[in-house]
Design brief:
- This protein is mainly α and about 130 residues long.
- It has one domain (about 1-115): Glutathione S-transferase Yfyf (Class Pi), Chain A, domain 2, CATH 1.20.1050.
- About 55% of the residues lie in helices and about 0% in strands.
- The protein has seven helices and no strands.
- It has helices at about 1-10, 15-30, 50-65, 80-90, 95-100, 105-110, 110-115.
- Helix 1 (about 1-10) runs antiparallel to helix 2 (about 15-30).
Length: about 130
């Protein structure tokens, strides 16, 4: 989440590029832990991980896509990448579609999202 908000708040090309790269790294970690065949996180069936992460992934794909902020996060990693296959499956799922807002509504409400969250650096893990 911090990398997502940093990308939303990026104020210039250098900050945007750094935030986008950090976000790509986190997305890559997520995708690397998913079932290789998919298309969903644990395989061929929608699971709790998919349901839980779908709202974030859909926001990311809609809010950071061009002509979004300078980070120009396309919402996609590369054609055929595990993240892209997962996101495509999520976006095509009729249950997800039935509970998802329009892309326009995401864009209309981004200011409310930003007002509630200021950018922050990744916090170090809390010690026990």
């Amino acid at each position: 989440m911090p990398a997502f908000f940093q990308a939303l708040h990026a104020s210039g090309p250098d900050a945007a590029a750094e935030a986008a790269e950090r976000l790509r790294g986190h997305v890559g970690e997520f995708a690397d832990s998913a079932d290789e065949q998919g298309p969903y996180f644990l395989g061929s069936e929608l699971c709790l991980v998919d349901v839980h992460l779908a709202p974030f992934a859909l926001r990311l794909a809609r809010l950071l896509a061009p002509p979004g902020p300078p980070a120009a996060w396309p919402g996609r990693v590369s054609p055929g990448a595990r993240w892209d296959r997962w996101l495509d499956a999520i976006e095509r799922n009729p249950h997800v579609q039935a509970t998802t807002c329009s892309a326009a509504l995401y864009l209309e409400t981004v200011d409310l999202l930003l007002a509630g969250r200021q950018p922050q650096q990744d916090a170090p893990p809390a010690s026990g």
